[in-house]
Amino acid sequence: MSLLPSRFIYVCLHFLVLYFQLQESQQSSADFRFYIENHTRNPDDLSRKQVRIYQLYSRTTGKHVQILGKKINANGDDGGKYALLVVETETFGSHIRIKGKESEHYICMNEKGKIVGRPDGRKQECVFVEEFLENNYTALVSAKYKGWYLGFNRKGRPKKGSRTTQRQQEVHFMKRQPKGRLDPLEEFRFTTVTKRTRRARRLKPKRN
């Protein structure tokens, strides 16, 4: 009869251990999810960043996005000093900040969907998410205003984010190295675009 209490105590202790292990596992999972969400939505200075310098070729204008200061357009020449962009990629996801190398202003989108240049890019309005499209172009959607894209019309003027969709050519860009600069160690795959290749991309391939 003396074995019964001992066995009962052993079973109780076993269940207590399992309970605390489960609680610890759930807490760790919750902490990890919080860490990811916190660093994705509100990255701090301690997060590891990747910095790249390249140009954004606009599909509609055939030129490049340039940051002149508060004003931003897509009429920059290949290799132009205002078309050189410093792109900061956060640790998690494809969240980026885009700063003009010359002007030191960031591309931001305000609550009205207007594209503006700001010297301080720490706010969420200055964060964009890369979306890689099937046609080898890239679209940049606002991290704060869902469904609002960075886009430019045929004259190179910024479009309001509320008037953009992913399918519009106005929001399609290509990453390109500045004219005359080649870096074999660059992680991104850059595409050289000419008037001929630009027209060819709009044509559907023939099937045999």
UniProtKB/TrEMBL annotation:
It comes from Sparus aurata (Gilthead sea bream). One of its GO terms (molecular function) is growth factor activity. One of its GO terms (cellular component) is extracellular region. It comes from the Eukaryota. Its main location: secreted. Keywords: Growth factor, Secreted, Signal. PANTHER family: FIBROBLAST GROWTH FACTOR. Residues 1-27 form the signal peptide. InterPro entries: Fibroblast_GF_fam, IL1/FGF. Belongs to the heparin-binding growth factors family. It is found in: Secreted. One of its GO terms (biological process) is negative regulation of endodermal cell fate specification. This is Fibroblast growth factor.
